[in-house]
Design brief:
CATH superfamily: HUPs
CATH class: Alpha Beta
Strand order of the largest sheet: 3-2-1-4-5-6
CATH architecture: 3-Layer(aba) Sandwich
Order of helices and strands: EHEHEHEHHEHHEHH
Helix content: 25-40%
Number of domains: 1
Number of strands: 6
Distance between the termini: 43 Å
Strand content: 5-15%
């Protein structure tokens, strides 16, 4: 089974996440998409995050009507901060018959060489890339942007592992949602209905 791993803090999960996940499930050749809830992204302050299990519950609520999209708490069991390379090793050991690939936006692809052991990840796993507003028309153009941050020879070496998917361009951020809830704005259209109800019931993000 081919599994696409869509990592995120999902603080909170919103309709943009679901649009991308569903598009990957339907149009990339992947069999399932696992929404991997990250307890602690090394690039984010943990103090800004809602409790791990509340974020996981929101992902459950958001994906329960999508049989190809599954929530995952695999990183809850691993040491923190969470590094993708460690998670992949753990998943390969636990599910030896599964093939795991990463799902990321083009902005993350450009910063990928900053990830821990990124070349080892490329050597063993595919990457499915969805466009952002600044996206280019081809993989070569996409990975050559911000060339100061990239080892282009590495990307050329593993070019067959990078799959550019013509997914919808979605620019909704969890930060925008949190900020506007705090301001008392209506953000319901940006969230799955059950996720909005959960946030509203628990008075999350209002302080």
């Amino acid at each position: 089974m081919k599994i696409g791993l869509y990592f995120g803090t999902f603080n909170p999960i919103h309709v943009g996440h679901l649009i991308i996940a569903n598009h990957m499930a339907e149009h990339s050749g992947l069999d399932q998409i696992w929404m991997v809830v990250t307890p602690h992204n090394p690039l984010k302050k943990k103090s800004t995050l809602l409790d791990d299990y509340h974020r996981l519950q929101m992902v459950h609520l958001a994906t329960e009507d999508f049989p190809k999209i599954k929530p995952s708490d695999i990183e809850f069991k691993l040491s923190q901060p969470n590094y993708t390379v460690n998670t992949l090793v753990h998943l390969e050991e636990k599910y030896p018959n599964y093939e795991f690939s990463l799902i990321m936006g083009e902005d993350n692809l450009r910063s990928f060489p900053k990830w821990k052991n990124y070349e080892a990840i490329l050597a063993h796993h595919g990457i499915y890339v969805y466009p952002r507003l600044e996206s280019k028309s081809s993989a070569d153009e996409a990975i050559s942007t911000d060339s100061e941050d990239l080892d282009l020879k590495i990307f050329q070496k593993y070019a067959t592992k990078i799959h550019m998917i013509d997914a919808p361009v979605v620019e909704i951020s969890s930060t925008f949602i949190r900020d506007n809830i705090k301001k008392g704005k209506n953000v319901q259209p940006l969230l799955p209905a059950k996720v909005w109800e959960y946030i509203d019931h628990n008075n999350f993000y209002k302080k």
